[in-house]
Specification:
Blueprint (H helix, E strand, L loop, with lengths): L2 H7 L6 H5 L2 H15 L3 E2 L1 E3 L4 H4 L4 E3 L1 H10 L5 E3 L4 H10 L5 E3 L15 H15 L3 E6 L4 H9 L3 E3 L4 H11 L2 E5 L2 H10 L7 E5 L4 E3 L10 E4 L11 H10 L4 E4 L5 H6 L2 E2 L2 H10 L5 E5 L2 H10 L4 E4 L15 H12 L6 E2 L3 H17 L1
Parallel strand pairs: 1-4, 2-3, 4-5, 6-7, 6-8, 8-11, 9-11, 12-13, 12-14, 14-15
Antiparallel strand pairs: 5-16, 9-10
The structure holds 1,3-dihydroxyacetonephosphate (13P) and iron/sulfur cluster.
Length: about 375
C-alpha cells in the first residue's frame, strides 16, 4: 500500500463534540437523521452490540442473518453497519455499487479475524498442497478478512457461520477428502466432532511456526486441518466455570457458543450459534435456569428480556467483546451526521477483484442455507 493510500485509509478520530453530548441529545440526533433518510438508510446490528446501539438497529441478527439481509437489501443508499469490520466488509461485497457501507468506528475489528492474514494463508496452502496435493477444500468462518474469503472462493471453497457450519463442512467433505478450516480452530473442531470425525483425524496448522501439529500415527488420515486461531472472548469460558455451576446450581443448564474450547462444549448441555442460544432461551420453560457461555452484551440482554428465567453468565467475570463495544452512540451519531452532510466517512470498500472472488465463497454458503 502506498503512502497516499495509507493517509486516505487512516481512520478518522471522533470529534470531542460527540463525547460531550448527553445520551438524550445523541439519541435525538440519531432519531432525526433516521427519520429524514427513511429506507435510504439501513442500520443492521449484531446481537453482541450494546443496547444503546441495538435500539436504533433496523434489524438485529447473527452473522448469517445479517449477511442474508445485506444480500437482499437494494433500497438503502447507506448501510451503517453496527458490528465489526469483517461484517461490514461482507455487507459491502454483497450489496450493489450504488450502496455505501459505513462502519461507525474503524477500530471495531475482530481479534479472531486478525489471526489469519492472507500471506500466512498462501504459505500454509503451498505447504499443505505439497503434503496432500489437490485433496483439500478451504472453508473460512465469516469472521475473516475479505482477502481470506477471496482466497477461499478462488480455491473452490465457501464461507461458514456458526449457524451453518455443520452443513458446510458436510458439503466440503463430499467434494474433497479433507478441509482446511480458517481461522477458528474451536468452531472447526466442535463442528467436525459433531459430524463424527475423530480428534485423531484433525490436525492444527500453526501459522507462526508454519507447521502442522498432529498427534496421530498417520498424517495421511487427517480429514480436518484447523487454523490455530480463536475468539478471545469465547476462550474465556472454562471447564472450571462449568464445574462451579454444576456444584453450586446442579439443576442449571449450561449452553455455550461453539467458539468455546472443545472440552467446554463437550461438558455443556447444549451448544449452538448466537441465534440458537437466543431461540433456546426463548423456548425454555418458565422458572428454568441457564448459564450462558457467550458474549456479555447478549447475555445481559437475555437476562433483561427473560425475567421469568434465571440466567447467568457461565463465567461470572466476563466482559463484553471490546471491539464490538467500540460502536457506541457518539460514533453512530457521528457517522449519521457525516451522511447528512453528504460527506460519509469510515466507508468500507473492497476492491472489485477481491470482492468478486470473496462473493463466490459467500454465495456458495448463502445458496446452501
Ligand atoms: P455468530 O453471529 O455467527 O453466532 O458469531 C458470533 C461471533 O463471534 C460474531 O463475531
Ligand atoms: Fe471477534 Fe470474538 Fe468479538 Fe466475535 S466475539 S467479534 S469472534 S473477538
Amino acid at each position: 500500500m502506498d503512502i497516499l493510500q495509507l493517509i486516505k485509509n487512516e481512520p478518522k478520530t471522533i470529534p470531542a463534540y460527540y463525547r460531550q453530548m448527553s445520551q438524550e441529545q445523541l439519541e435525538q440526533k440519531i432519531r432525526e437523521i433516521k427519520g429524514v433518510f427513511g429506507n435510504k438508510l439501513f442500520i443492521p446490528g449484531h446481537h453482541y452490540q450494546r443496547d444503546e446501539v441495538i435500539q436504533f438497529a433496523d434489524v438485529s441478527g447473527d452473522s448469517l442473518q445479517l449477511a442474508q439481509i445485506a444480500a437482499k437489501n437494494r433500497d438503502a443508499q447507506y448501510i451503517v453497519f453496527c458490528g465489526v469490520h469483517f461484517m461490514a466488509e461482507t455487507a459491502d461485497i454483497l450489496t450493489k455499487d450504488h450502496q455505501t457501507v459505513i462502519l461507525p468506528d474503524m477500530r471495531a475489528g475482530c481479534s479472531m479475524a486478525d489471526m489469519a492474514d492472507i500471506e500466512q494463508t498462501e504459505r500454509a496452502w503451498e505447504h499443505l498442497q505439497r503434503l496432500y496435493a489437490d485433496s483439500i477444500l478451504p472453508l473460512t468462518y465469516v469472521n475473516s478478512t475479505a482477502a481470506i474469503k477471496a482466497f477461499v472462493g478462488k480455491n473452490g471453497g465457501a464461507t461458514v457461520t456458526s449457524s451453518n457450519a455443520e452443513k458446510m463442512v458436510k458439503w466440503a467433505l463430499s467434494l474433497k477428502e479433507r478441509i482446511l478450516f480458517l481461522p477458528d480452530q474451536h468452531l472447526g473442531r466442535n463442528t467436525a466432532f459433531k459430524l463424527g470425525i475423530k480428534l485423531e483425524e484433525m490436525a492444527v496448522w500453526d501459522p507462526h511456526e508454519e507447521q502442522l501439529l498432529f498427534e496421530g500415527d498417520d498424517i495421511k488420515k487427517v480429514k480436518v486441518i484447523l487454523w490455530k486461531g480463536h475468539c478471545s472472548v469465547h476462550e474465556n469460558f472454562t471447564v472450571e466455570n462449568i464445574s462451579e455451576v454444576r456444584h453450586k446450581e446442579p439443576t442449571m443448564k449450561v449452553i455455550v457458543h461453539p467458539e468455546c474450547q472443545h472440552e467446554v462444549v463437550r461438558l455443556a448441555d447444549e451448544s449452538g450459534s448466537t441465534n440458537y442460544i437466543i431461540k433456546t432461551i426463548e423456548k425454555a420453560e418458565k422458572g428454568s435456569s441457564w448459564a450462558i457461555g457467550t458474549e456479555m452484551n447478549l447475555v445481559n440482554r437475555l437476562i433483561k428480556q427473560h425475567p421469568d428465567k434465571k440466567i447467568i453468565s457461565l463465567n461470572p467475570h466476563m466482559c463484553p467483546c471490546l471491539t464490538m463495544n467500540r460502536i457506541d452512540l457518539p460514533h453512530l451519531a457521528w457517522a449519521l451526521d457525516a451522511i447528512k452532510n453528504d460527506q460519509p466517512h469510515n466507508v468500507i470498500h473492497i476492491d472489485d477483484d477481491t470482492a468478486s472472488k470473496a462473493k463466490l465463497a459467500l454465495s456458495r454458503m448463502l445458496e446452501r442455507t
